[in-house]
């Protein structure tokens, strides 16, 4: 998954290649994104597209020679194992022909550099751990959790303070917690969740 939407431009032999990248959750969202970019860049020579979601992947050369634009764009997404992402490379022709090999390299490079510029996220499975502590202990424990780099997803203040912590190593976390609190706080395990972290 990409970290954010964005646009990145490169120039090759006087042709401008603008790569627009966006998160999408469905074919419909990808189609709407493509339509917005085409409307904005209607004067461009080509608006070539590619997208991947969990169930579908598709690409279009939009008038470039078959297999020279959409396919290499899609290959970048596949090689980087990115899903729920759509890309449009808008080309403004600069008057110099690039040839089939040159087009493949240009479109692939435009997507690759755009993804580098927006960054990627990796989806990792985390365990949910709930901790209930007295109000007078809560501040000290929260500071210790954050200082140790544990992901505090939520803090709920009721009769007690309940922290929701996400961890990839629940056993190791429980050992840390016991040492930190002298065994006074019990960890209750909840449902696993997927968390997107910088890749």
TrEMBL record:
Gene Ontology BP, a term: regulation of translational initiation
Q: Which PROSITE patterns match?
A: UPF0029
Recorded hits in Pfam families, A to Z, give: DUF1949 (PF09186), Impact_N (PF01205)
Domain (Impact N-terminal): residue spans on this chain: 14-115
> Where does the UPF0029 domain lie?
131-183
Q: Name one GO cellular component term.
A: cytoplasm
Q: Which domain of life is it from?
A: Bacteria
Family under the similarity heading: Belongs to the IMPACT family.
Q: What is the name of the protein in this document?
A: Uncharacterized protein, YigZ family
